[in-house]
Fold this sequence. Notes:
By secondary structure, the protein is mostly helical. The chain has helices at residues 2-38, 53-59, 62-93, 101-113, 116-127, 132-139, 151-178, 183-191, 196-207, 209-224, 228-233, 247-257, 261-286; strands at residues 41-43, 47-49. It has a two-stranded antiparallel sheet.
Amino acid sequence: MKSNIESQQSKSAYKMLSPFIFFFVLTVLIPTIASLFFSFMKISSQFEWVGFDNFIGIFKDPLFFKSYVNVFIFMAGSIPITILLALIFAVILNKPMVKGRTFFRTVYYLPAITSIVAVSSIFLTFYNPTGLFNQVLALVGLGPIPWLTDPFWARVSIIIVSIWLNVGYYTILFLAGLQNVPGEIYESADIDGANKVQQFFRITIPMLKPVILMAIILSTINGLGAFEVPNILFKNGFGPESSVVTVGVNLYKTSFEMVDFGRASAISWTMVFVSAVLSIIQFKLGGKDNEA
């Protein structure tokens, strides 16, 4: 009797999962396998097997390495600041004495649900030579900054938008983690004479270690696929001296402008490999105690 009930439950579970499984196979698994095969083919009027020629071609392309260099610069400039700001905001919002916490949580999270196209378009007006940022600099006696025409400042402009877009999301993520930290720990720390800075580095960060690790991995994966912001701020997606071209932009240009889907598939699989390697490294550096 028990086995019959378990069998019926299993059948019911598979029936409930079947729509998800169907759409996963249709929209994720099949395209992934097809992309892997395409990376070894030359696709024109017909499919021609070319082996590793597509990979050899992209590794000979200076723009391919330039795009990865730019992405790593963006991640190095944005991820640490984003995580630190999100941690600080989460700690502040977790304080019971803060009034209007629900309002501020909503405000901080708004950038995460706002259209990236709209955000990038607004920042584009801010970065103009006579835009808001340069007007503010003029008020304090500083000269205008060539946000969109100088390679260094072009990269800074991408980093600023990235930070603004992501801080709110990770703030809410860390806030959820903080609410699982027992308040007695902080009370004991107060009794022992630990100040707020010591509590932050010795209690908050260690307790949030699994969440922080997950946030860094998510930021890394999202950073590798960055596309919208550089493509909108800079009309061709390359910027001055190709200083803002990302792997995502290079992938788009290769597939839809050069119409070379074989090479584009090869680029996409380098992204998969780099994401996997970076995630493994981050897990190793995060230590053994990284389970959420």
